[in-house]
Amino acid sequence: MSTATTPTAAEAELAVQARQAVAKSQGYWAGVWKRLRRDPVTIGCAIVLLAMLLVIVFAPLVAPHDPYQGSMIRRLRAIGTPNYILGTDELGRDMLTRLIHGGRLSWFMGITPVLLAFVIGTFLGVLAGFAGGKTNMAIMRVTDVFYAFPSVLLAVAISGALGAGIVNAILALTLVFIPPIIRVAESVTTGVRNLDFVDAARASGASAFTIVRVHVLGNVLGPIFVYATSLISVCMILASGLSFLGLGTKPPEPEWGLMLNTLRTAIYVQPWVAVLPGVCIFVTSICFNLLSDGLRQAMDVKS
Amino acid sequence: MFFYLIRRILYAIPIALAVGFVCFMLVQIAPGDPINAIVPADAPGDVVEQVRRDYGLDKPLPVQFGIWLLKVVQGDLGRSLATGRSVWSDLSSAISNTLMLALVASLIGFILGCVLGGLAGTFRGSIIDRAAVTIAVAGVSVPHYWLGMVLVVIFSVQLNWLPAMGAGPGGSADWVWDWDHMKHLVLPAVTLAVIPMGIVTRTVRGIIAEIMNQEFVTALRGKGLTRAGIFLHVVKNAAPNALAVMGLQLGYLMGGSILVETVFSWPGTGLLLNNAIFQRDLPVLQGTILVLAMFFVALNLAVDLVQTALDPRIKRA
Fold first, then answer.
1. Which of A192, A229, B21, B78 has the fewest Cβ atoms within 10 Å of its own Cβ atom?
2. pTM of the model
């Protein structure tokens, strides 16, 4: 059968057209980027966050003073004091320096739990969604139990029982964010699993591992990732909240939540200096929130 | 409907048991011997052993859980390490204070959220819509403990209009609904209301926009119904979902008020928890978390049942 091996002129023409169409189409990520570029709010938030990240990473180079070096004679200076633009804290340490250094731990504690929960939650959720049956039942019922706690309460309960400390706080927050990620991962995976192309892959002899790696993960990681980014904002607030309660890091370590706590008594002396760490938490949190909203729209993920 | 009711209630029982187990485990995961949750650290060795046997702490974990559960069901949450009083005696007054704060905050958040969300959903794409969405995003992104401090700075320190902390002259025991007491409630309640306001705004906006796009609204408009008339139809359709979201928010506020209560020294469960953590008073920590979590489980159940009863479109069997 010569027609099967040597294409006819019409078929060759079709193949050329198809290749041209593939070359011309932008692909998924190019489309996402194009939509993102037209969204000034999302781009603005991304720039603010990137700038903050740079300042935080290069904190020792950027910060004008030593974050631990205080002085009793220049305690609680007002905003705009020469040499101390954002004033000084209750121990006479430069606020700007402390805010820059404090961002390191606040960002770390805000992002690490979500990252860990993303990895663990995606694994368990995809497993539950793909395996179905008893595995699904077991994973999802345990998830239900953790859903029966309000998130703040669960975080406070676990880190309260474990005792103060950064590792314990991160552990508690990770546990708080695993169940919601499992739920999202399970529901998208269940949706993808029943699509025709998965059946087709299975029929053509692909192993379960290949199906999950190529067909399932490729389709579910995006939505789960977008959902996880929306959790960073909550996690930042909760992490700083735990530090605010004294459950995170310990003084004199700079951290926004803890700084807010130690400056609480100063609101009668220098109120606007005392609320500065909260401004940092607020700005970071709202930027992550808007960035996540923008990503969701650009990636066309249904909420 | 009847069978759904029974099934839903039956389903809540294993959840409640599992929640109890998690609370039981809180003391187990705490560093050190769980016996430290009962006897002070400086107790002599033979006393510790005696107590260990009395409390059944020498028995295997599942048996211990059974014993603990039996006590809890009878209302015995143990004794506070710090005060020696029974946990329940401190908890009962704290719970009512937190409930009052959470109820008022939910109400404020719900009303504001419905107004903002309703306006945004009705006039989608307008300036009002953009403003409402911005307020909603700010509401869910703001660290509310910080917002509390800012409100104290403005209304207590600078303007001197409202008290910065406490629950009024009568304390928590003799609460009266007069201005002397209520002015203590204003700032914490407003602070706590910001989160449900943001969430309700988002939800209501989505629901209203969806309903406005449905054909029956076009039909109502076509038959010449006034804007107010159409509005009533939309509200009727949106109410069950909005109420369900609000019901759950009340539960989140009950559990999440710890930070706001700490800022305002409001004598509720949050302050109790904070003190318990500070003094490593594990029985108080465990009891408070247990009661709040059980409240949340019950609330979830109630919301589900009420929503099913209210909304004839939900057919559950």
1. B21
2. 0.84
